[in-house]
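B., you asked whether I could sanity-check this one before it goes into the benchmark set. Here's the sequence:
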Amino acid sequence: MTKFDTKLIHFGSEVDAATGASSVPIYQASTFHHHDIYNPPEYDYSRSGNPTRQALEEYITLLEGGARGFAFSSGMSAISTVFMLFSAGDHLIVTEDVYGGTYRLLTQILSRMNIETTFVDMTDLSAVKAALRPNTKGVFMETPSNPTLKITDIAAVAAWASQHQLISMVDNTFMTPYYQRPIELGVDIVLHSATKFLGGHSDVLAGLAVARTEELGNQLKYLQNGLGTVLGAQESWLLMRGMKTLGARMERSETSARKLADWLQGRSDIPAVYYPGLASHPGREIQEKQSTGYGAVVSFDVGSQERAKQVLSRVKLPLVAVSLGAVESILSYPAMMSHASMPAEVRSERGISDGLLRFSVGLEDIEDLIEDLGQALEG
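And here's what the prediction gave me:
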């Protein structure tokens, strides 16, 4: 069996069967001719199926080790579609410090459809179990969580969910299948904001979902087609191009992230540093059990909103922006960006302070990044 880095390049559709082209063609077509009305073609309308998108969907299925994969117009589009597996009256258990967009979907949109959510600290398995209700139908994990990088024991939660016939889901955006493959740990559905590390170049908006079983895959296909939440052919091609270099990018960025986390932890003026690779991180042992790396995102508290804004205004190398996982480093301010939709009191309860910054480490020289951040912190 080929190793993961080889699969990134040789995934089955890397060479066009018709022409030998070294890249999957972009089928920029909305509809397809029926040569024989009695024998419909494989593709008839691009919402239902497109050859370029299908190549991508087979690609992520291979990497995650699932049964069927699906490509969506954004990460939130993928998450929203998966949540449509549930019905009015159902109850979900969700990681408490989940991405702000997921929190907004659950509390402001799905709540209107009478789908209930209990947010729990998933580092505590007993808290997950205690949240179970007669109408609980699913468990949604985000590990490492965004932005405090808490670690959930995927296998333990997935096994418990299976015992109670619950659908288990994991947002795997931060780790990617390069470092973490939740389906192999028993999870039913794995999700990605492919805009981030999988795309890797800040030039494509996309989401992916992979189902562990054909049965779940068929349900997701029905929803994807019915809702029309599909990824276009051009974006599918861009995403495949980015994914081919995933291994090289993740390895380089993670090496730099470790150095950045160590440097930040060594500073007396940084109250807290969050990174699973630090010996002091409470979830490090579980992270090492279920993942082969620590990721390229480091969060740290600079002590106050005023100082956070000072750093954001003084850095020269990272983009100050929403998003993460790109070749360029990105420095984000969760309180005003990714988690702005979460009420201030809720952010505070989840450890997302007004002084918290999230650094997605790119491919720049780490010494240059540290020097730049150092001058921004000095003020």
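One thing to flag: The longest helix spans residues 246-265. Otherwise nothing jumped out at me.
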